[in-house]
Design a protein that fits this description.
Number of helices: 7
CATH class of the largest domain: Mainly Alpha
Structural class: mainly alpha
CATH topology of the largest domain: Serine Threonine Protein Phosphatase 5, Tetratricopeptide repeat
CATH superfamily of the largest domain: Tetratricopeptide repeat domain
Length: 169
């Protein structure tokens, strides 16, 4: 009697093998990603909270300096130096951005002082200086003339008049 072996088609077995292989590869990849995500949520670096606070407000100088101090203590001095330099440059840019607004506020204050005390020479000198800084040369000259009318012998008024004359012409 002749034995017959079971007959499997090659096409079906290859398709089945390929499908199982793809399922296993994609399933393994998904499992690795899930394990990494779970590990990231449970195991965080020691400075994670400070780093997240910095990401929440990236231009906050105190938070940057706090993280830089922590990095310095951990021995990462180069990274701490870079962070301090970046924080200081942002602080300078922020102060420069607000400089015109502060000058305008000071100008409004000295205008109110000059209106309340029309015989106060220093108010008009301050108005002249602030007008000069804001680029209003006509207002600076008018305030300086008012200060000179109140005190014609003031060395401050005379020095500022010479500076204004040089920049005016």
């Amino acid at each position: 009697m002749k034995l017959k072996f079971p007959h499997f088609h090659r096409v079906n077995s290859a398709r089945l093998f390929f499908s199982l292989e793809m399922i296993l590869l994609w399933g393994g990849l998904a499992a690795l990603i899930a394990i990494n995500v779970m590990a990231l949520q449970k195991i965080r670096p020691a400075h994670w909270d400070k780093l997240m606070m910095l990401f929440a407000a990236p231009f906050s100088v105190p938070r940057s300096l706090d993280l830089a101090s922590f990095l310095w203590k951990m021995g990462q001095k180069d990274e701490a130096r870079r962070l301090v330099i970046a924080a200081q440059s942002g602080e300078v840019l922020g102060a420069w951005e607000q400089a015109d607004r502060k000058l305008a506020e000071q100008y409004a204050f000295w205008q109110s002082v000059a209106a309340a005390h029309p015989d106060y020479r220093d108010a008009f000198i301050s108005l002249a200086a602030l007008s000069y800084q804001l680029g209003n040369l006509e207002d600076a000259r008018a305030s300086l003339e008012r200060a000179q009318a109140l005190d014609p012998n003031s060395p401050t008024v005379q020095a500022f008049t010479s500076v204004l004359d040089k920049s005016y012409y």
